[in-house]
Amino acid sequence: MIELLPLLVSAFVLGLLGGGHCLGMCGGLMGALTMAIPPAQRGRRLRLLIAYNLGRILSYACAGILIGLAGWAIASGPAATAMRVIAALLLIAMGLYLAGWWSGLTRIEALGRGLWRHIQPAASRLMPVSSVPRALLLGALWGWLPCGLVYSTLLWSASQGDAWQSGLLMLAFGLGTWPVLLATGLAAERLTALLRKRQVRLAGGVLVILFGLWTLPGPHQQWLMGHGSAAASHQGH
User: At what angle are helices 219-236 and 198-215 packed, to 10 degrees?
Assistant: First the structure.
């Protein structure tokens, strides 16, 4: 679990600081969802927005488990090291995206457009949202909206070679996106302005890049493991 913690932090930071991209993809929906709530339901706006985001986050976690099964099948073979390298490179690429140095990850959004064409009509029929179950279902469907950042995180989570770890990473990623989208739905501009600041995005991007470099197989990991074991042995004496 200790080894998983840096990965969970990376996933959360990706979601939190990737909120600018999420606003472009889902911000319009959040505004439409808020405006579409019938006048009689305005007092339940927060509850409906939470239900929508919960459905979206759960869809990320389910996708993580499903793709993690495929990753487990590959990682069980001789390709395990290659998958670890892919995981590290994806982390570095996502760090570069967060810092604003490279946005090539958005090109993979085309992968999910065919699937979304079949899902979008069902999502549209749920508007306007008038109940918590309806908001929950709409969020679960909208979680499959083509998004380069989500797809990249999915591929990275699958490279861990464990379905449950993949699901947990996607859950952490989804929780990271929650503050920005929820604040957008509630017209809370201070939080979104803070997360869009250049210094904050640079710090988050560099942090994720460092996690990616740490994930790369190599002598540095052996040194870290040996250093940690030596420290534990010293404390034991």
Answer: 90
